[in-house]
Amino acid sequence: MRVVVVGGGVAGLATARGLRVAGHEVVLLERSPVLRPSGGALTLWSNGLRVLDEFGVDLIGVGREIDSFEAWRSTGRPIWRVDVTAIRQRLGRGAVTIPRSRLVERLATGLPPDVVRFGCQVVGIEANRQGVRVLCADGSDFEADVVIGADGHRSLVRRLFVGGVAKPTGWATWQGLVESEHPIATGAVGVNVIGPGGVAGFLPAGEGLLQWWFEVPHGSSEIAPWSPVEKLRARFGSWRSPVPEVLAGVTDAELFPHARHRVLRVWGGERTTLVGDSAHVMPPALAQGANQSLEDAWLLAKLLSDDVSASLRRYESARRRRVAIVSRLALLATTQQGRSWTRFSGLPTRPTTWVYGTGLRASSTLLSGGRRLRRRW
Length: 377
Ligand SMILES: Cc1cc2nc3c(=O)[nH]c(=O)nc-3n(C[C@H](O)[C@H](O)[C@H](O)COP(=O)(O)OP(=O)(O)OC[C@H]3O[C@@H](n4cnc5c(N)ncnc54)[C@H](O)[C@@H]3O)c2cc1C
Prior knowledge:
This protein is of the alpha/beta class. The protein has a single domain (2-166, 260-362), classed as FAD/NAD(P)-binding domain. 35% of the residues lie in helices and 27% in strands. It is built from twelve helices and 18 strands. The protein has helices at residues 10-21, 46-55, 84-91, 100-109, 156-161, 183-186, 228-236, 243-248, 277-280, 289-303, 308-340, 349-362; strands at residues 2-6, 25-30, 41-45, 64-65, 68-73, 78-83, 95-99, 116-118, 122-127, 132-136, 141-144, 146-149, 167-179, 189-195, 198-204, 209-217, 254-260, 272-274. The strands form four sheets. The protein has a seven-stranded mixed sheet with strand order 6-5-14-15-16-13-17, with helices on both faces. It is globular, with a radius of gyration of 20 Å. Bound molecules: flavin-adenine dinucleotide. The site of flavin-adenine dinucleotide has 34 residues, from helix 1, strand 2, strand 3, strand 13 and helix 9.
């Protein structure tokens, strides 16, 4: 089948990889002139890593395998620890943190050079029962049997075929990826520090890089784009180590306001569907946006068949419920964590790890082996 994928982020590149593995003819249209390197580092969990394995994407030499994630109060009291080595044993894969730029590089490396067309901004799509025509701003056009929207949370494909915009959650992340000699950068432990009015996070991302971020309520003028580092230092500088040390070495910060879609029943028309953030942008609290995008790519590649419309709806129906769970939990985790975690401390690691692993499996189509969810979310 001839497939056009719109958008060359994690979701689009993975979809192109998966569809090619499944034997389809693929063209990917990306509006940027090159792969976009922005976006700090991502955590790939057991589900996303298993998809990459199936697509033959290797991460050798990039990123960092994580052994545990820990959460502390801003005062220094430990709250919980998730033993990722136990999750690795249980689910086959654990967690790897990797700069987004490295992940898109590795996803693109396996694609023949004529698959990705850079500088093609899609401006229109004409669909009928026989096929689809995709129109680009430079006047070029592409005929296809199916079009997959992987064009991010402001998706044109979504706007044309289903509608429904992502709403701000009222939270945002300030983040950066820096070269660092801090022990976290060279270790295998991810750290969350939770305190009044926000969460700080630190991760090793491989190649001596440290990913740091602060999740804060968004919309107040307290941390403004023109002086973020100064304001972050003023607000979080007295928190437990490593917050002050890392902030001391930071010179610049990127802002990501969080947005969330309501996960719809149907994601496209007769010959169109969506993958990744275009279908289900969610807050990053559970580190699942890219992982769920990889799962979309994996399932779509498995299900797409000559009975186009039916296979697209089967894909959406299987993904929708899992994605909706993750998205709700991610919202809850963001809006509640400052409040609810301050009631706990010293949670035992084994049950915490078991709950995390079980949640990971329940929110994944791949890890749950396609078992049906009983409850509607
Ligand atoms: C602060 C933050 C931290 C995160 N951390 C994690 C994490 O730890 N783990 C995790 O799993 N996820 C994480 N995520 C989420 C993750 O980054 C995304 O869910 C994931 O990258 C999927 O993105 P995408 O490919 O769907 O969209 P995008 O990355 O937005 O890519 C869309 C692409 O489409 C292109 N495009 C758009 N319109 C057009 C058009 N008209 N024509 C042609 N091309 C077009 C764009 O240029 C872009 O390249 C995080 C997100 C944020 C904001």
